[in-house]
Amino acid sequence: MHEILPEQVYEEQLRAATGGGGVIEYLLHRAKPHLPPWLAGIGTGLASLPAHLFWADNAAATAGLTLASVALTSATWWAGKATTQQRRLHSAITVAASSSWFTAAAIAGPTAGPLPGLYFIGAPTLALTWNIRQILRRNPDQTGSGSDGGLLEKVGLAKTQVTGSTVAPNKATFDLQLPRGELTHDDVAKALPKLASALDVPPNAVRVVNDPDSASRVQLTVVPRDLLKNTIPCPGPSHPGGSIADPVHVAIYEDGTEAILYFPGDPAASRNAMMLLVMGMTGSGKSEGGVTALGEILTRRDVIVWASDPSKSEQTLGPLLPAIDWAALDMKSTKAMIAALKAAIPARTAWLAKYGYKQWEPACAEVQSDGSPGMPYLIGWFEEAAKTIRETDDDVFTGIGQEARSAGISLVVSMQRASGNQVSTDTRASLGSTWCFGVRNDRDATFALDDDVLDAGAAPHLWKDKKPGYSYLVANGVPETLWATPARSYLTAREYLDWVVLAFASVRAAADPVTEAAAAKAADRQYTRRTRHPLPGTTHPEEDTAMPETTYDQRLDDDYDADEAFAGEPTSYDAEDSEDDDAYDEDLDDIDPEQPLPEPTTVVQFSDRPPAQPKIQLSPAQARRAMEELLDEFEAQGRTVVRPADFMAHCDRHGRSRSWVSGQVAAFVMAGRLEETDETGSYRIVRDEDDEAA
Prior knowledge:
The protein is of the alpha/beta class. 40% of the residues lie in helices and 12% in strands. The strands form three sheets. It has a ten-stranded mixed sheet with strand order 6-5-14-13-12-7-11-10-8-9. Strands 1-2-4-3 form a four-stranded antiparallel sheet, covered by helices on one side. The chain has a three-stranded antiparallel sheet with strand order 15-17-16.
């Protein structure tokens, strides 16, 4: 319920009484607010008559009345400290004049000497001064010192009107109407420090949001207490096994709502794919926030992650390495990853265009109508990217940031300080979203946050490294009203990350043939022989620790024109990176090939070597028929449940990748040959008699 202003009370007093009434009644009703001073003057004059009758010849009464007059005047002056100086002085003069005349009239008589003249001139004059003061109190032009007690006027926002307010337990929001042509949003932003001082709250506890429909209206928010001071443990996956198109929950705002990231674009929401800059000084919680986001991403079914950290190696990404498709933990493999991302963009966009997608959407990750495997979303996450930029080029991420949106790729660049000395302005411009943690000073804040966000009250330089996890999220899909609202990233335990890696191992997607082929062509053995880290609790890497060296066209379906996709692309990620291979060849030059080998002294025979199983190279169509024959064979054996792993041993020798086999199993499900069971990764064989019974 809104507070009733003095002007509203005055209007109510002036409003005529309801019901029928004549002119006299109307005039009396209008005069009522102005009668008290006149009644007080008349009462003082009448009271002087009995006072003179009783105290005319009483010396003690004379002294008492004089002391009472002085005491009453002093009390009025003391009580007026809480009011304005003008009102205090007016009240004291009125009491002093009235009490002095009453004392003289009580002693000498109200008709003695000049007392009658003083009364009939002074009493109406004093009454009229109070009437005038009362009339001037209702000033429709002076709206800045009404219900706010003059606060807005004190901070330089005179004539600003509070048109509405919303009060929550720890948050107050005020709608302000600025005087048109006199004040703007910038004036309110400049007054925020003074407002914070007047309200005795932290500097970043007062924020302002501009009204997009009017330059003369703003919304002021005051948060008196910091509700983020206690660390917040990660609540668990928000969409376990869901799509990467679902929001990724990473933090919590001061009002208890969750802060989210959207990676893929959404045409219906007019949202582009996210290119994210994560910035914060050492100790600000930047890396912890990144790990929390990655842990959430790796619970989704249709995304793969390529992550790089050439500075800290396994220190930050260590717990998540078994779930990351490609982890580049040194500079050589990081350069290879950048080259692979550049090569994957045209290959992936060609695939999307072939199947009629304008940009990536969850349907892209499903098996397509022609039976080819889908394409999961790709996130390239670069931790401590300053080292990468230093040793490559300050524009190294610009092209990826500008072109990857339409290819189903999101780029995340994490660094301590995105200054012009470390990253080009073109790269900063291509990273349209920002997750800013505490920074060293207000200049550093300008590298991550736009001026309008800083003007709205965002101040990450006030946190520095004293409040780890505190951050501002300015990203696609996040309402502008929340851009200057502080949030705190969740604190994620190592045990939780281990659980994510294990629990969702069967849910996570594998790289699609198109992306694999592009990376293999651009990065060569840095990709095909990349390290695959073992799952927690195991001592050996996964079955495909070292991927076989196959040519990129062997990894593609026959329906995809590989030569067209990679026309003009380089065949190696970096000519300089082949120097290590050349050095290895130079070491071989020291060996004399003509020197005879030493005679063996001991021969150990364990068993007869099994005959090598011939490796048959089948076309994609032949491989699909082989899959169908295997399924028929399993059905003839009386098996009711199969897994993708049952096909792997037979299909590896045909030159098919694991992701291709998984896609064929999904095609069997769509064709009705297989049916999902309650156990993840298990499928029931649908027999002909089952179809007839149905």
